[in-house]
Specification:
This protein is an alpha+beta fold. It contains two helices and two strands; from the N terminus they run E-E-H-H. The chain has a two-stranded antiparallel sheet with strand order 1-2.
């Protein structure tokens, strides 16, 4: 079972730009983490991403987000 987040133990430095307004329009990278860093979303074969069944579900739901959240 994973340990609970404890700020004193889990200090992370921010990678955000100090004076950047993240509320403005722009392109942002999003990292999706999976348990134990397993490759469950698919594989890269000959430079192309081949989605697994789980990866296809994530792909479909990813493009559903703007339908539910107006500014995304």
């Amino acid at each position: 079972m994973p340990k609970a987040y404890t700020p004193e133990l889990h200090r992370r430095r921010t990678i955000r730009l100090r004076d950047y307004n993240y509320k403005q329009n722009g392109a942002y990278f999003v990292t999706i983490c999976v348990r134990n860093k397993e490759c469950v979303l698919g594989s890269i074969i000959k430079g192309k991403m081949i989605l697994s069944e789980i990866g296809k579900i994530v792909f479909d739901y990813w493009f559903e987000i703007p339908k539910h959240f107006q500014n995304v």
